[in-house]
Design goal:
mainly beta, 5-stranded mixed β-sheet, 45 strands
């Protein structure tokens, strides 16, 4: 039986809906659209950012047909929006003509930003679809990093036309950025006669990249069919600073190579003998080069010069006899927008995680941050000079002293490196984005040869050591021993020294003295079963024994002071653990997944 209260409730509901039906019918007959503002005439129309949030409905006299319902997100889209892009420079976008203009004087050093007056039907700020970008007279420099990130090619247009003024003198690094914009549809850039300074990486976002899975011939055909016009850069005949030779941009004296187009399809390129300098990111993103021949007089290879040349398999680096340093391109400084080629989310405006940040080390948080596209490790912004190439071997020139952190990042086929007599930088340095030491491709077996006259490194028993024998850097591809005994002289085991498949047969490590550091991921994902040290250990670093599933015993006869985050993470078979009684710190998750031991605690003061 239905209770009295339920009957009254049901009656009220039916009455309400009946009333609404009558109201709708009367409104329809009068020719008015239903609108919430009609129900309460005392409320003013909603206004946001000075714009009516809903279009006013117009009554059609003598008509019985109701006008369409107006959504709260239907906006009177602004046809012309503008904003500042420099101290004395302004950008203006006309949605009708799909034209973006930059006018004023001086330097453009601010990105073209989205406008609150130009939004989608859902109230979201939109990017600007353009047929043409026109930079007006009076503008002297484009120097604000990725200026056109919020610009898209107009629907139906085959390209984006670009006009640069005669007053232009400088084009800064990353002006045409490849990340999440349509710079690839700018098919022609004409440099006026006053342009006298083009920074390395100014044009690296121009042109398309070929598909990794396709053949060379398929890639050439694909790009030629995709675009009506070939990518090209031309120069005013009166420009005294730059020249084009075989489609490549040089300084007038042919001493500096500025830009090699990403769509240039030569398999082999011999750099002119007169060239002594290659600008940063000069060859970046070219998908066709298989070999580059460097001139003997080359003194400088710009940061990230061959970044992501994924077919580049051969370069005579040893011939650059005057080369002293290889650098990474600092994407944090130039605010680059990272794309999928770096295996990182788009990064502009995101928080950069430094190595000192604890969140960097905690894998669970790092994974959440990474896939959530909210935070990204700092090293993803640094573009290595040969990162992402297809190099199988590399020989350092005799004078080369340093190679930066990401020099060989993602060089998955690199199996052999030869050090010259001067190389002094670290291998797998602890410091993130180190400017003097490079990281080897992660967990890969490597053959490393060292010049006998090198004063900083040596190879002994198929292991790379520092010359003084205090640091163990890397087990080489030829290392086959099951047991490793480190003498009292050894003080440090470097990052990834025995990780992954580097030392497949290694099962037991004995350290006769004390260690200052077992570095990050030193044995991570390796097959080690026993580790014993007869002295003290100052630091077991982050993820040093990460997922060492076969590790059964870790014995320190002295004291371990500091244990990093996830140092023994999921060492599931660990049963015998001795760390001493004076542990000063234990990082987050250091013993997570180690169910067979009693977890140690920090010493109380």
């Amino acid at each position: 039986m239905m209770t009295l209260k339920r009957r009254i409730l049901l009656f009220n509901i039916l009455t309400f809906f009946t009333t609404m039906v009558i109201v709708v019918g009367l409104t329809a007959r009068s020719g008015k659209a239903i609108n919430t503002t009609d129900l309460d005439s005392s409320k003013p129309d909603t206004v946001e950012n000075g714009q009516d949030y809903a279009k006013e409905t117009q009554e059609v006299q003598g008509s019985n047909t109701p006008t369409a319902y107006t959504s709260m997100f239907d906006t009177e889209e602004a046809q012309v929006v503008s904003g500042k892009c420099g101290k004395d420079a302004v950008w203006t976008y006309d949605a009708d003509s799909e034209l973006l203009q930059i006018t004023g004087t001086g330097v453009v050093d601010q990105r073209i930003k989205k406008s609150e007056e130009y939004v989608s039907e859902y109230g979201l700020k939109k990017r600007y679809r353009v047929k043409e970008i026109r930079v007006g007279e009076g503008i002297t420099a484009l120097d604000g990093g990725p200026l056109f990130l919020n610009v898209r090619k107009a629907k139906g247009a085959e390209e984006i036309k670009l006009s640069l003024p005669d007053s232009l003198e400088k084009i800064g690094a990353d002006t045409f950025d490849p990340g999440q914009n349509d710079a690839i549809y700018i098919r022609h850039i004409h440099l006026p006669n006053k342009v006298r300074y083009i920074e390395g990486g100014a044009f690296w976002g121009l042109g398309d990249e070929a598909e990794l899975q396709n053949s060379f011939r398929e890639d050439v055909k694909s790009i030629s069919q995709k675009y009506k016009e070939k990518l090209k850069i031309t120069i005013d005949s009166k420009n005294p600073y730059y020249t084009i030779k075989d489609g490549v941009l040089f300084t007038k004296d042919i001493k500096t190579l500025v830009y090699y187009p990403s769509e240039k399809t030569d398999k082999v390129y011999r750099i002119p003998k007169s060239v002594i300098r290659i600008k940063p990111l000069a060859f970046a993103r070219n998908s066709f080069l298989k070999e580059v021949i460097l001139p003997d007089g080359l003194k400088e290879i710009g940061a990230g010069a061959f970044f992501n040349n994924h077919r580049l398999a051969k370069i005579n680096l040893e011939q650059a006899k005057k080369l002293k340093r290889i650098q990474d391109f600092d994407g944090v400084k130039y605010k680059i927008s990272l794309g999928c080629w770096t295996l990182a989310p788009v990064g502009v405006g995101m928080e950069v995680l430094e190595e000192s940040d604890e969140r960097y080390h905690v894998l669970a948080e790092y994974r959440k941050d990474f896939y959530g596209s909210t935070k990204v490790r700092k090293d993803y912004y640094f573009l290595g000079t040969f990162a992402g190439t297809n190099l199988k071997s590399i020989q350092f020139p005799e004078r080369l002293k340093y190679a930066a952190y990401n020099t060989f990042k993602n060089c998955l086929r690199l199996k052999k490196i030869s050090f010259g007599e001067s190389y002094a930088g670290e291998v797998n340095p602890d410091r993130l984005c180190d400017k003097k030491g490079f990281s080897l491709p992660m967990w890969s077996a490597m053959e490393i040869q060292v010049s006998e006259s090198n004063k900083h490194y040596k190879v002994r028993n198929h292991i790379l050591y520092s010359k003084d024998g205090r640091t163990v850097y890397k087990a080489l591809k030829s290392y086959q021993d099951a047991t490793l005994v480190l003498d009292k002289n050894v003080q440090k085991i470097a990052r990834e020294a025995f990780s992954g498949n580097i030392a497949k047969k290694l099962r037991k490590v004995v350290v006769l003295g004390s260690l200052k550091q077992i570095s990050r991921e030193a044995f991570a994902l390796g097959g080690i079963k026993s580790f014993e040290v007869y002295g003290n250990v100052d630091t077991i670093d982050v993820e040093a024994f990460f997922c060492c599933w076969e590790l059964q015993k870790f014995i320190c006869h002295g004291t371990v002071k500091n244990i990093g985050a996830q140092a023994f993470y999921y060492a599931t078979n660990l049963r015998n653990l001795s760390l001493g009684k004076n542990i000063a710190s234990i990082g987050a998750g250091a013993f997570d997944g180690c169910g067979g031991i009693k977890k140690p605690h920090v010493m109380k003061n």
